[in-house]
Design a protein that fits this description.
The chain has five helices and seven strands; from the N terminus they run βαβββαβαβααβ. The protein has helices at about 20-35, 70-95, 110-120, 135-140, 145-150, and strands at about 10-15, 35-45, 55, 60, 100-105, 125-130, 155-160. α3 (about 110-120) crosses α5 (about 145-150).
């Protein structure tokens, strides 16, 4: 079966986290690709309440069981924040002439794989991502969404670098 990822009539997918680099990605996508359909995608991480270790004077100690109600509340808050961020990105995109829809998506494995899955499911014609341009140890420690997208995407990936004044 032929994949429709990269189909010319599909929307562009813009990865958006609210950073200066992602805002510039929206602006440049509108300028370069003209008025068209766009999905502004913000990826959020479920289960953060379970991943927060407790710090004590003697160092890192395994956290006690997290109350499921508290974990659910944390997830709802993180999801709500992601929806707000995606909405702000879509609003910016619409102000620049794109027919943009916001989409907050839970991270299932890692951010690049999640973005690629959403691109495939929506037959995205291209993926646009902002890059902070980290280098050295920080780049190795934090990983790179951009590198993951470039390595595994079956559709074009447009990388927009953070404005120099914001680096």
């Amino acid at each position: 079966m032929l994949s429709r990822v990269g189909a010319a009539d599909g929307p562009i997918l813009i990865a958006f986290d609210g950073s200066p680099a992602s805002r510039r990605a929206v602006t440049d996508a509108a300028r370069l690709l003209g008025p068209r359909r766009a999905l502004v995608v913000t990826v959020w991480e479920p289960g953060l309440a379970y991943a927060m270790p407790e710090m004590r004077a003697e160092g890192l100690v395994p956290a006690p069981m997290v109350d499921p109600g508290i974990a659910r509340s944390v997830d709802q808050g993180v999801h709500s924040q992601a929806e707000q961020v995606a909405g702000e990105g879509a609003e910016l995109a619409r102000s620049l002439g794109l027919n943009a829809q916001p989409l907050a998506v839970p991270d299932e494995r890692n951010i690049p794989e999640t973005i690629l899955r959403v691109a495939e499911e929506n037959h995205a014609s291209a993926i646009v991502v902002g890059s902070r341009g980290l280098s050295g140890v920080r780049a190795r420690l934090e990983g790179s969404t951009t590198k993951g997208l470039l390595k595994h995407a079956s559709s074009p990936v447009i990388v927009v670098h953070e404005p120099p004044e914001d680096r």
